[in-house]
User: What shape does this take?
Amino acid sequence: MGIDPARLDGPIVGIASTWTGTMPCNLNQRDLSDSAAHAIHAAGGVPLPFNTIAVSDNQSQGTPGMRASLISREVIADSIELMVHAHDFDAVVCLVGCDKTVPAALMALARVDKPAVVLYGGPMRAGRWRGSDVTIQHVWEAVGAVECGVAPREELDELESRACPGPGACAGHFTANTMAVALECLGIAVVGDGLIAAGAAAEKAAAAERAGRLAVSVAADGPTARTFLDRRALRNAMAGVAATGGSSNALLHLLAIAHDAGVRLTLNDLVALAARTPVIASLAPSGAWLAEDFHRKGGTAAVCAELIRAGHLDGAAPTVQGGTLAQVTAEAPVPDGEVVFTAAQPFKPSGQLFVLRGNLAPDGAVVKLAGTERTRQTGPARVFDSEEACAEAVRSGQVRPGAVLVIRYEGPAGGPGMREMLSVTSSVVGAGLGESVALVTDGRFSGATRGLMVGHVAPEAARGGPLAALRDGDTVTIDMDAGTLDVALTDDDLAERLAAWTPPAPRYDFGVFARYRACVGSASEGAVLKA
Assistant: This one.
């Protein structure tokens, strides 16, 4: 292996990479692993790189492959946990990128509790098309427009060829970049390094070198991972997510991380915190700007500093780079009033993440209010037993304004895998129904989704939740102000229907999908596997 035995008394540092050649999101991680390894070696340590899997949420959207995405979070976490146990590393560097790799790495680190540094591989730079910045969100909405016959295919082909110009995770503030902000708010990553664009190869390599040197320095007696995954840190992460208008998937992932770190944290805790945190960054899809713009204006450091000044984030929390969050962000740029705002004059008064409860969601449902000002809708249900069935109805013009689309049997167990619904929500927007149609599902949504979309409905339909009792034409009401999701049926009506309900046959009866279906818990608790 080329390792000098005389060096083995130094720190042994595992480098967990989530590189894959199947997508641009994590494509730079071999190079980042090499840079981290070089720095570890130069600092007196022995680098031992290894790899995990990663699933592209974008490429699997609207296909059966999306069922693998959330399941991959558990596989990635398990693989890192197993490697750390097997090889007893003194410290770990985790290189992460596309959506599930960030929470997966944190879940593994929570379990093994070794000294660790996490580096996000970086966002993709924006594409340029017809004089405007574009991202994969524009592509998906253009797909919906073509499917509904309101835009030509040639226009989509041109946009598609320009939207994703290089390596990195999605350029908007979707799930991956949301979790990159959470990483730095936790203190387990060097503040400012994550949102360096993946395409800025030299700058990103320098960040990987910093992570490698830092891992060596903390290996002997530095703080272990759970130092940065306690209740205070997780609440800081939630504040960062809320303040930047982040993805609803962050709720799912922070709950899962808390579970593996042994921290008592509930969905209500997180959403209550979001409700009192102002949105101080105007980032797509809720705002105007992209990750590279955000980074130029100070990024996570600027947001943390402003939240600390306003009392919305605990600046006394430690960071792996040394010092507190307040100390390491003290020199951050002040809000520019265009990309980053002050807490006193925010972009929006409070976080756009909400929990709804009612007779359709006794254990809760999640809404991220993005790209719409609607806070209430009552309409007839159009009920579908799969994402594909709903998408076909939208694309064929069978959905009328005012409808409440319901997609069930797509929850953690029912899917299995709790697919994202970006394909169908983009079709709704592309068909011109974005401001008149709402959607309710026990599945989940991409961070790029916009509109009045309610996900994570619990209990899920496949396990006898109330969505299983719905029929076409039932009157469903979504009321954000009241915090409710209800159908105009009595408890007796619902009980009678559920008593006659027969669960659908499972989509998989062997292998990883069947095992996941049997073991996964509720979305309201992070969709973690039960021992």
Q: What stands out?
A: The chain has 18 helices and 14 strands. The radius of gyration is 22 Å. Residues 67-87 form the longest helix (21 residues).
